[in-house]
Amino acid sequence: MSTQAGVVAPPASLARRFVKAVEDCLIVTGRNLRHFVRQPQLLIFSTIQPIMFVLLFAFVFGGAIGSSLPPGVEYVDFLLPGIFIQAAAFRSTQTAVGLAEDLDRGVIDRFRAMPIARPAVLIGRTAADLLRNVFVTLLMTAVGYIIGFRFRTGVLDAAAAICVVLAFGFALSWIFTYVGLRVRGAEAAQSAGFVAIFPLVFASSVFVPVSTMPAGLEQFASVSPVTVSVDAARALSIGGEVAEPLLQSMAWVLAILLIFVPLCVRRYRRMG
Amino acid sequence: MAETTSTAARVQGIVKRFGTTEALSGVDLEVAEGSVVGLLGPNGAGKTTLVRVLATLLRPDEGRAEVFGLDVIRDAGAVRELIGLTGQFAAVDELLSGRENLRMFGRLFRLSRRGAAVRADELLERFDLATAADRQVKTYSGGMRRRLDLASSLITRPRILFLDEPTTGLDPRSRNEIWSVVRELVGEGMTLLLTTQYLEEADQLADRIAVIDHGRVIAEGTGDELKDRVGASMVEVRLEEPDELGRAREALRGLSCEEHQEAEQPGQIVLATSGDDGVGMVAAAARALDSAGIAVRDLSLRRPSLDDVFLELTGSATADGAEAADTSDAGRSAAGDGGEAPEREPAEAGR
Ligand SMILES: Nc1ncnc2c1ncn2[C@@H]1O[C@H](COP(=O)(O)OP(=O)(O)OP(=O)(O)O)[C@@H](O)[C@H]1O
Ligand SMILES: [Mg+2]
To answer: Which residues contact A218 (CB under 8 A, 6 or more apart)?
Structure first.
């Protein structure tokens, strides 16, 4: 090379190393966000799909299900917080797909052969997916308002409801980060994700109250992370018992993160 | 004897298995600082696997690998500060532009925002990508992608650069461009480990060549040393009538060259000459065949190919020898070689 960018000295102190690690995470996050912008059709479809669910369920099943709802509750108000969670769950499988694609394409090889903070690739992925969730959830709320949904609580509660959705989606992202690191190829990652997510989402309080389910299923559904998160988000949106489902939901989120973050980091380090 | 140069990379007894396949079966290799070592081998020889071990991407099952005295497993972080890697398949981000790619890698290499931008511009200019700088990489041609990939490996000046098959699948023009960039880097004293399937390429670029096959280094030396084991040039004779092979051999017997043990096609004789006078040999062969009244369809002179070296070293042709032989002199004879598309292998090794 005619010009030589200076030979860079390795960062000196622990504090410097930490700052560099945070920067690396931000750079990789920024790169992943760019990907979303460059593929707007993906963003659009991942927003349209849950909205379609809302419309189908609210108008097709609304009448039939209405009778099993608590008195005075509209089905669309009941449904939308559930759909937030359902959509977050399905989108979290995209974390595995995105990671698997990266691994296939070799750009991760370049990252791994460079002196960058080890977990930056993983954190950059999940952080970008979290930001995408913020965007999609707000968009869904706006569309919800068009079709008659209303938060029946205060602004703070509504914000808390959305935070529950985001925390839940973030935790699931880490599970699917692990899936993305384990399976080979984006398609395998996609199928693995759906196999895991479908039963969880349908055996939950997303669409109907769990009390309408057969006994065995009800037991499973009532402790599922999906149900407790839906219940927490729902109570924060339309009123009802908040504390218990919220605590349970946060416990699930913490437990998932505590297990899967170290698993993912270890797996990533050991790759090869 | 005093050591005048230090060792940039040292590989000792490296074994790497993938399930039941042994990709590397005890490789030893040394790359002196400031030198260019060409690792020459056919498909599946283990070239990529060895490069990935040295680039800290793969853990070997046995043996040691060091880069500037640093162990690639224990001191992986420090090794990554010193190396540049241009893998067999371009490791750049398809959805970003060329400029965005270089800036991103620059930032990750701890350049300031401004520093990364300046460096990106320099490299884009240098690698003839300036006009395509703001296009998404997925719109780039194979050659442009290769150049961007190479540029990405040079953002901070690495002390050793690993180049895995830098020209496979490129047309002769792109190949020449890559060659001239490599020569420049060498001129600046960069240490290089370069893998290739083409003897010609190793010969053109490398100071020393290690021939690798089935996960083992089976020969090492300068290009001339290797070629001398086969012959300096090859004279290929195709007869009009394959039946006349015996008579043709008889007629050629008097020439001062030996028949190379290669009979891919009926009615073909390949002669290996050790002297410099290949053209004289063609003339002599033509005269000999003519005076014996044997009709010749084709008479040609070529450099030894990887296949010839292989034949000599192992007594058997490479798995896809025909391909290697076809392309081995592609860099010299520009016309007629479109450059085959690179086979995109599924998922890279190491997962
Ligand atoms: N991840 C992997 N899983 C299983 N086998 C592998 C893996 N990576 C490489 N191999 C096998 O190891 C051997 C050496 O492969 P390698 O890619 O190192 O060869 P190569 O010399 O680079 O070949 P090519 O010229 O085709 O690139 C091959 O038999 C290959 O099939
Ligand atoms: Mg290879």
So the answer is: A210, A211
Is the pLDDT assigned to residue B3 strictly greater than 50?
no
* Closest ligand, as measured to the CA of B213: 1
Q: In chain B, which residues have their Cβ closer than 8 Å to the Cβ of A188? A: none
Least confident of A134-138, A257-261, B106-110, B302-306: B302-306
| C-alpha span between B146 and B148 (Å, rounded) | 5
Domain positions in chain A are 11-270
Tokens 């001339």 found at: B224
Q: What is the mean pLDDT of residues A153-178?
A: 94
Which of A122-131, A144-153, A156-165 is the least confident region?
Answer: A144-153
Ligand 1: centre distance to CA B192 (Å) = 21
DSSP state for residue B56 in the 8-state scheme: T
pLDDT band at A170 (very low <50, low <70, confident <90, very high): very high
Hey, whose CA ends up nearest to atom 2 of ligand 1?
B349
What are the extents of the domains in chain B? 7-227, 232-303
Closest chain B C-alpha to A136 CA, distance in angstroms: 21
In chain A, residues 136-155 whose CB comes closer than 8 Å to chain B: none
* Cα–Cα distance for residue pair A229/A163, rounded to 1 Å: 10
- CA distance linking residue B271 with residue B260, whole number of Å: 5
Per-residue pLDDT at B344 exceeds 60: no
Locate tokens 């993912």: which residue?
Answer: A264
**Does position B320 have pLDDT exceeding 50, yes or no?**
no
Ligand showing the shortest atom-to-Cα distance for residue B46: 1
- Distance between CA A73 and CA A198 in Å, rounded? 26
Q: Region A224-248: what's the mean pLDDT?
A: 91
Q: Tens digit of pLDDT for each residue in B40-94?
A: 998 999 999 999 999 999 999 999 999 999 999 999 999 999 999 998 888 899 9
Find the closest chain A residue to B49 by CA distance.
A272
pTM beyond 0.95: the answer is no
* Contact assessment for residue B265 and residue B239, using Cβ atoms and an 8 Å cutoff: no
* Fold that domain B7-227 belongs to in CATH: Rossmann fold (3.40.50)
CATH class of B232-303: alpha beta
- Following DSSP, what letter does each residue of A74-135 receive, concatenated? -HHHHHHHHHHHHHHHHHHHHHHHHHHHHHHHTHHHHHHTSS--TTHHHHHHHHHHHHHHHH
For residues B49 and B16, what is the distance between their CA atoms, to the nearest angstrom? 8
Q: Is B11 exposed, middle or buried (0-12, 13-18, 19+ CB in 10 A)?
A: buried
Asked if the ipTM is above 0.90, the reply is: no
